[in-house]
């Protein structure tokens, strides 16, 4: 990690006149007994990777959804209860919409988790906000999944 040197705080730098010399490389920290040598997983790296991959898949799913429903099938005026019933009669469209729902909710929840981690200062606030986010995400995913798979056009 590069950190400002003590001389940089006094405005003197290292005396060479080069502004880059105001920064020095911090020596590696020694491990304490509390610092684990390895963690089981690197959750933040996996969450970062999920955001990139789910974003790419979501772009394909959403643009495909818009292209098919709005351009090829006659536009918004054609979308009705019967249109949705006809679409969800096919397992292909059920899986398509289910993937959009799951990826969008998990992608959004992961982004909100990051925002909560960045801006919630107290640990208790962070815990409550992430708990509420988790409950809302699980509720929405379960309810949406239930609706997609139990949709009955004869109601």
UniProtKB/TrEMBL annotation:
The keyword Cell membrane applies. It is found in: Cell inner membrane. Keywords: Cell inner membrane, Cell membrane, Electron transport, Heme, Iron, Membrane, Metal-binding, Transmembrane, Transmembrane helix, Transport, Tricarboxylic acid cycle. Residues 1-21 are annotated as: Disordered. It is a multi-pass membrane protein. Pathway: Carbohydrate metabolism; tricarboxylic acid cycle. Its cofactor is heme. The keyword Ribonucleoprotein does not apply. The chain crosses the membrane at residues 46-68, 88-106, 127-151. It holds the Pfam family Sdh_cyt. InterPro entries: SQR/QFR_C/D, Succ_DH_anchor, SuccDH_FuR_B_TM-su. CDD domains: SQR_TypeA_SdhD_like. Its main location: membrane. Membrane-anchoring subunit of succinate dehydrogenase (SDH). This is Succinate dehydrogenase hydrophobic membrane anchor subunit. The lineage of its organism: Bacteria, Bacillati, Actinomycetota, Actinomycetes, Kitasatosporales.
């Amino acid at each position: 990690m590069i950190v400002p040197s003590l001389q940089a705080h006094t405005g003197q730098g290292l005396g060479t006149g080069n502004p880059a010399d105001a920064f020095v490389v911090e020596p590696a920290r020694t491990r304490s007994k509390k610092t684990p040598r390895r963690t089981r997983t690197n959750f933040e790296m996996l969450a970062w990777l999920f955001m990139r991959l789910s974003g790419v898949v979501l772009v394909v799913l959403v643009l495909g959804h818009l292209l098919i429903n709005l351009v090829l099938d006659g536009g918004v005026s054609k979308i009705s209860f019967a249109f949705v019933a006809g679409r969800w009669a096919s397992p292909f469209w059920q899986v398509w919409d289910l993937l959009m729902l799951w990826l969008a909710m998990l992608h959004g929840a992961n982004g909100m988790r990051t925002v909560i981690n960045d801006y919630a200062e107290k640990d208790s606030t962070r815990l409550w906000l992430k708990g509420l986010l988790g409950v809302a995400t699980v509720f929405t995913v379960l309810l949406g999944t239930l609706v997609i798979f139990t949709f009955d056009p004869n109601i």
